[in-house]
Design a protein that fits this description.
Layout lengths: L1 H6 L1 H10 L16 E5 L5 E5 L3 H11 L14 H6 L1 H12 L4 H10 L4 E4 L2 H4 L3 H5 L3 E6 L3 E6 L23 H7 L4 H10 L3
Antiparallel strand pairs: 1-2, 2-3, 4-5
């Protein structure tokens, strides 16, 4: 819970500090069209993330072959693009639909823009970077064999995180726990006979 709360910390700060939630923003209404996600020709989505939109606008316009809009007063400043975001997002939607996500990502990154794929959970679960960072791991499970699962979002040099065993099955540690808190073998046997455990 703590990890997820940190991930959405900014969103949680608003109700915590002022008692109001941030309004949900629709993709079509994004105030910064250059920090948004777009569907490509192959029905996959990419994210463009330019938090300095005026700096990147000329590069972005050139990469998308919309330089005719670079000095257009509707779009030539961050404020203008924000006021006319619906119109610009519609133009960008049409543009991004002309190439596949791989084509756009290659082109945008080579052009100096900031873009990344928007991955489904299944794609994240196969992402090589997730395995390189041990966010996803492969383990030998006694019942399921070789399987993949979520790994560790942290690591420590002195005590590295590791998968040592599967979660115990129901009742697997009952005897051990009862002994730790003072039950004898006979006490445990009686509890089992009575159906209490």
């Amino acid at each position: 819970m703590g990890s997820i709360m940190q991930l959405i910390g900014l969103t949680l700060d608003a109700p915590a500090m002022i008692g109001q939630e941030f309004p949900r923003e629709l993709r079509e209404d994004a105030g910064n069209p250059m920090y948004n996600h777009y569907r490509c020709k192959d029905d996959k989505w990419i994210v463009v993330a330019h938090l300095q939109p005026d700096r990147y606008w000329p590069i972005f316009a050139k990469a998308l072959d919309i330089t005719r809009l670079e000095e257009d007063p509707r779009f030539n400043t961050m404020e203008a693009r924000g006021k006319n975001s619906k119109e610009l997002i519609k133009i960008l939607d049409e543009k991004f639909e002309t190439k596949t996500s791989d084509e756009w990502l290659k082109h945008l990154n080579e052009s100096g823009c900031i873009a990344t794929p928007l991955q489904s959970p299944a794609e994240v679960a196969e992402d090589p970077q997730a395995y390189a960072n041990r966010y996803m791991i492969e383990v030998d499970h006694p019942d399921w064999g070789r399987t993949k699962q979520v790994g560790f979002p942290w690591d420590f040099s002195e005590t590295p995180a590791s998968w040592r065993m599967p979660a115990p099955k129901l009742g697997a540690n009952t005897d051990e726990i009862l002994k730790e808190i003072g039950f004898s073998e006979d006490d445990i046997a009686k509890l089992k006979e009575s159906g209490s455990i």
